[in-house]
Write a structure and sequence with these properties.
The protein is α/β, with parallel strands linked by helices and 749 residues long. Among the domains are: 66 residues, no CATH class; 107 residues, Isoleucyl-tRNA Synthetase, Domain 1; 90 residues, no CATH class. It has 26 helices and 16 strands. The chain has a five-stranded parallel sheet, sandwiched between helices. Strands 6-7-8-9 form a four-stranded antiparallel sheet. Helix 20 runs antiparallel to helix 23. The chain is flat, with a radius of gyration of 39 Å. It starts with 12 loop residues before the first helix and ends with a helix. This is Cysteine--tRNA ligase, cytoplasmic. One of its GO terms (biological process) is cysteinyl-tRNA aminoacylation.
């Protein structure tokens, strides 16, 4: 048989019959030695059949003909085919082809894990619908000022939401509620209304003293019955403050002092006894309050206050906000279906959830989050509310573990019409109905504070799954950790709390957020001077880095000069940069571990500072592009965390909201000119030995410019560094520097 070049193809039949591979290779080599290796030679099926009998090219160098043809065929067809496998022989012209390509092994991509309270483990986060994430967050009960406990929860969830949305690129739909119908709101609204009426009547001193004594009697009983040490201490403080304010008024009345002096003592006592009198007035007159607008006025005021606080903290608003008062018809329908499904019952105009019936169902389980707390009557009664735990109310239940879905309204309470008579929603049902209406039978994430796990969230789960007849209303339950104040428990009911407004008077929203970022979102955070000092130092550390990079970037270079040759230092810093980015990504995948992220960012900045210091010591300019890339990355991460409020291109904004970009861009060229002029003047003054001019130059740097929020940093043999810094920060630095100098002077003397 001849090939396309006219050469006679070998007869392989006798060769193929040789069983020993070495002998077969020897025979093949002898046959091939009579033929020349021709580039244009076309492979025949006989060639392929012969060579696929060999597992590898022979190692014997004398059999080079076989080795050469084996590699030739392997290059054209790939590895030799096994028996019974189809060979990839094509109509080849004998031309060389590209060798087979194999993809790199790569590394397993890191997946986001979140701590799920339903399992008490970190679980891989898998949304139910592609990249879309449905998220419901329990909002505040608005009856008083928002405090740092609220900030703990809502800043933490804001960070998590931003990370999921802006870092992991999930399409997050975030829903939050406002609880504006609740036992606490009803009671506080009545108390405020009745106390204001009492105050407007301007009671005589004798009448006020009589009323305070009357109010102290039930208060003393309550104090004696209280077993909780923190609550008892709080009640004792109130009692002591009232007694201290009572004595001056009693003496003033006995001494028949002037009206002005008596009135002053009356005002002091009214203020100190406000809580005492409000509680007493409510217990005696609360049932006579019938104006429903009283119950809507209070939550409307505090809701507005809450939104202003969230804006001040740079917390993103929810995509949709629900108010209980606007969802009463949906709540009624929700309760009715639970009853229809056999998990609720009507009793004396109220509707209760049958926990025993639900728990006995094969497809349901009660107490998913905190099963060990089921039956905790103290927690259950706190969940029912102060107005709903009277003996007659508790007797309406089939089991003490049952909870109210709908409460029959008593005199002095707001009410809405429903199939069971006039009433109002229970606390737990509110979130279930609102979330179910917007997010359906199953949501990806439900969030709230750690203290809401039982009974609130466990009851939410039960009644929602009773409504939808499923077992997966929430896929991932996230709970933020407690907040303590200098190691002590924080509680609004104990009057041991710091309002968000008061916190913002001491520290900026960024500093508070940095403090939260430096701790795990699910663990207890202690709000203390030490915690905030760490956040302040971290902010200062980052800000100095950004200011130094900005100064380096202002150094003029031509268009080609911006691309500088990298040495070992740049290559090492760049490697560290990418290593830190990898570590930060792993930390974010690990339950959004911002604490580790902040540590990695600090380490990266420290490496940059060492690099800049080394270049400065060698009188060499640092690589602008590399430092800019690192600074931009850090800025990007801080923006994701919400720690950079403005649309700042690099670093922290300067000059307050809405002014940062224009301020820096506008004033920096003029400050640069001033710096260069000052450098020139100082040089002449040193040469001409004019100390007065040098003193004026120092005064400009140390006394005048700090008042304007400008820092000049002089370095021997190098240009002055110009930085825009917060004015108060500079004044504080100046004061510390002066104190240090004075102490050194005293030691020297």
């Amino acid at each position: 048989m001849a090939d396309s070049s006219g050469q006679q193809a070998p007869d392989y039949r006798s060769i193929l019959s040789i069983s020993d591979e070495a002998a077969r290779a020897q025979a093949l080599n002898e046959h091939l030695s009579t033929r020349s290796y021709v580039q244009g030679y076309s492979l025949s099926q006989a060639d392929v059949d012969a060579f696929r009998q060999l597992s590898a090219p022979p190692a014997d160098p004398q059999l080079f003909h076989v080795a050469r043809w084996f590699r030739h065929i392997e290059a054209l067809l790939g590895s030799p085919c096994g028996k019974g496998q189809p060979c990839r022989l094509q109509a080849s012209k004998g031309r060389r082809v590209q060798p087979q390509w194999s993809p790199p092994a790569g590394t397993q991509p890191c997946r986001l894990h979140l701590y799920n309270s339903l399992t008490r483990n970190k679980e891989v986060f898998i949304p139910q619908d592609g990249k879309k994430v449905t998220w419901y967050c329990c909002g505040p009960t608005v009856y008083d000022a928002s405090h740092m406990g609220h900030a703990r929860s809502y800043i933490s969830f804001d960070i998590l939401r931003r990370v999921l949305k802006d870092y992991f690129k999930f399409d997050v739909f975030y829903c939050m509620n406002i609880t504006d119908i609740d036992d606490k709101i009803i009671k506080r609204a009545r108390q405020n209304h009745l106390f204001e009426q009492y105050r407007e009547k301007r009671p005589e001193a004798a009448q006020l003293l009589e009323d305070v004594q009357a109010a102290l009697k039930p208060f003393s009983v309550k104090l004696n019955e209280t077993t909780d040490p923190d609550k008892k201490q709080m009640l004792e403080r109130i009692q002591h403050a009232v007694q201290l304010a009572t004595e001056p008024l009693e003496k003033a009345v006995q001494s028949r002092l002037t009206g002005e002096e008596v009135n002053s003592c009356v005002e002091v006592l009214l203020e100190e006894a406000k809580d005492l009198l409000s509680d007493w007035l409510d217990s005696t007159l609360g049932c006579d309050v019938t104006d429903n607008s009283i119950f809507s006025k209070l939550p409307k005021f505090w809701e507005g206050d809450f939104h202003r606080d969230m804006e001040a903290l740079n917390v993103l608003p929810p995509d949709v906000l629900t108010r209980v008062s606007e969802y009463v018809p949906e709540i009624v329908n929700f309760v009715q279906k639970i009853v229809d499904n056999g998990y609720g019952y009507v009793s004396n105009g109220s509707v209760y959830f049958d926990t025993a019936k639900f728990a006995s169902s094969e497809k349901h389980s009660y107490g998913k989050l905190v099963p060990e707390a089921v039956g905790d009557q103290k927690a259950l009664q706190e969940g029912e509310g102060d107005l709903s735990i009277s003996a007659d109310r508790l007797s309406e239940k089939r089991s003490p573990n049952d909870f109210a879905l709908w409460k029959a309204s008593k005199p002095g309470e707001p009410s809405w019409p429903c199939p069971w008579g006039k009433g109002r929603p229970g606390w737990h049902i509110e979130c279930s109905a609102m979330a179910g209406t917007l997010l359906g039978a199953s949501m990806d994430i439900h969030g709230g504070g750690f203290d809401l796990r039982f009974p609130h969230h466990d009851n939410e789960l039960a009644q929602s799954e009773a409504y939808f007849e499923n077992d997966c209303w929430v896929r991932y339950f996230l709970h933020t950790g407690h907040l303590t104040i200098a190691g002590c428990k924080m509680s609004k009911s104990l009057k041991n709390f710091i309002t968000i407004k008061d916190a913002l008077k001491k520290h900026s929203a960024r500093q508070l957020r940095l403090a939260f970022l430096m701790h795990s979102w699910k663990d207890t955070l202690d709000y203390s001077s030490n915690t905030m000092e760490s956040a302040l130092q971290y902010e200062k550390f980052l800000n100095e880095f950004f200011l130094n990079v900005k100064d380096i970037l202002r150094a003029p270079v031509d268009i080609t000069g911006q691309f500088e040759k990298w040495g070992e230092e740049e290559a090492e810093l760049n490697k560290n940069f990418y290593d830190k980015k990898t570590a930060i990504h792993k930390a974010l995948c690990d339950n959004v571990d911002t604490r580790t992220v902040m540590e990695e960012m600090r380490a990266l900045v420290s490496q940059c500072n060492l690099y800049m210091a080394a270049r400065k010591a060698m009188r060499k300019r640092p690589n602008q592009a590399l430092l800019e890339n690192i600074a931009l990355y850090l800025t990007h991460m801080l923006k994701i965390f919400g720690a950079v409020e403005e649309d700042s291109s690099l670093g922290f904004p300067v000059g307050g909201p809405g002014t940062s970009l224009s301020l820096e861009a506008t004033v920096m060229p003029y400050l640069q000119v001033l710096s260069e002029f000052r450098e020139g003047v100082r040089k002449i003054a040193r040469e001409q030995k004019v100390p007065e001019i040098l003193q004026l130059s120092d005064a400009l740097r140390d006394d005048i410019l700090p008042e304007l929020g400008v820092r000049f940093e002089d370095h021997e043999g190098l240009p002055t560094v110009v930085k825009l810094v917060d004015r108060n920060t500079l004044l504080k630095e100046r004061e510390e520097k002066r104190r240090h100098s004075e102490s050194e002077g005293l030691e020297a003397s």
